[in-house]
Write the structure tokens for this entry.
Amino acid sequence: MKRMGGIDVIEKKLLKGIQHGDIKSYELIIDQYSAYIAKVVKTVGGESLMSQDIEEICADIFIKLWTDSHKIKITCSLKSYLAKMARNRTIDVLRKKNRECSIPLEEDELNGVVLESTIENTLLRKEQYKLLEAMIYKLKEPDREIFIRRYFYMEQIKSIANRLGLNPSTVMTKLSRTKKKLEVEFEKGGNR
Amino acid sequence: MKQKLTELMREWEDKEALILDEEIQAVSLERIKALALKGINEKKKTKRKFRKGILLVAVVGTLLSLTLVAEIIKPSFNTFFGDQTNLLTEEMQDIEKRIVKNGIIVALEQAVVDETGAMISFNLQKEDGSVFQEGTEIGEINLESSASGMGWRTNSQLSEDRKTLMYYLLMDQDTSIYDKKITLTLNNLVQVKEGEKVLEESIYELYEQYPVEKRGVNVEEAEGIVAIDDKLLVGTEQTGLLYKCLEEVPSFMLQAVGFIDHKLQIQTELTEELGRSSSWARVSYLLNQSTGEKVYYNQGRSLSINEEERIAEKVVEVTSYELTLTDKLKNIYPVISYEQKQMLQEETWQVDFKLSKNTKVKYKGLDIHLEDDMHKVELQELYVSTIGITLKAESINKYSKKYQMSNIDIPVVAYMKDGTRIDYPGYSKTSGENGQMIIRYNLSGEELLEIDCLSYVMIGEEKIEF
């Protein structure tokens, strides 16, 4: 049995159910989370995806959960695990359709943090992620929510601004500052 | 090339699950569910009843053919795979393990095994030769072995004379199962009864019978049960509907009936331990008794757990059907579907066995290189058997130079010599020994691959001839 960390009792039972091939547990998971997962896919995919695409991506997520049920490691919650799967799967599907990510490259790329594979100047991606994760936890609100909405859910600036009652230019400024902070953290960690 | 934030965020898990504003009205949740259920190719408990005519043809056919198949294949595989069973013959191995406990004989029959999977048949019979009750099933099935990452699913059927309860079990794992001890554990015998019941009271009568006070909230759009913030208020004994309506599943209750935004909503509650041994029930549709029309629902669910660790499943069922508080409502009756499980025998049966290497598995060395943003993937080995396909690959993080699982999709299709194709819609990806990536493609439903007729396998765009 794999570790299930902070996952709650119901989710544990549902996961145990699908690990044992219980269709009812599988259906309950679908019923419980399909609307939320569809929202994640729609948010990440934006106008590039038709309803049919969204439905197929969501179904793929649940099928994968079923086929990998005995192998998956859930650290937070089933909901957040499914959201991560949905988010990443949507990006992969968009890539396959040759549709670019909705975030402009200059906003997405970390200045000075290189990807070239020379062993001397490249940090393990895992370490890079750890730094990023630590920084996100340190961020104050609303900067933290803005960052997650933009870079995890790929939400439009206008949409983030509307939700948080801010001016779009304020959102842009906050994102830019957060990104700058991260670049500094990477520099301190010798990631350039 | 610079690192991208959106790529780094692939690892993020949003613990708070931020609220998203996107409208998904155009997205069909029913279609998602239908696709997701279709995709796993799991046929709910086999309820096939072979017609006598078909059985007769099968028996006559088997006798006439006088082949080895007829002598060595045990009944369970034959029952599930019918004509396809002869495809298993050459790969089949006998297990021949048998235990007797508390009046029940558990007999492991045969298995087909490959690099990362196996299919095993077994059956249960009563020691005194008497029959099982209709609907008898094993409550819970577990497998244990030193092979890592084991998963399994089962299918069952009671023989026509009800003396043999037949099963096949399809398992897969990350590492080879050859010659490793496997323990099969069967817990309890239960009886499963499926049914459907039209409620004796119409929606109108339910509604009239349990009038509910309006509790000083804005109920302009709500009649009957009070609605607050688009949710039905769960009724109490005095003020609402709390109605045990199904003898077969006593923990199923109708909780509330009401109207919100001119849409009929029914709230039900089921308090059951989830799992193979639990019963379930739900309003599957409404029946218009005067026209015979069926009205289906959109269902929304919420789950909670009580002190006894039993899960309460609250189902709010909303129809977009234009029902209003008119005489029309008098003809509308809820129809409840249920599956009732009753304990027949509390007992645990456990049997150990081993499986030998299958020499009929087809193998090809590969030299296929794929790449995504983060990983270089080298496909190295391909194994094809009657029951599935295994790909072994090396996936290396381009930047850390370490083994790491890639998210890359690798579709696989097998083609037979007569041109027919076999798709493998479901697969699982795991880390095997030495950091290798193992991708397992299971057979689709109960369709088998005829190994001697295999022509080639398409891995993405690459054609691998056999």
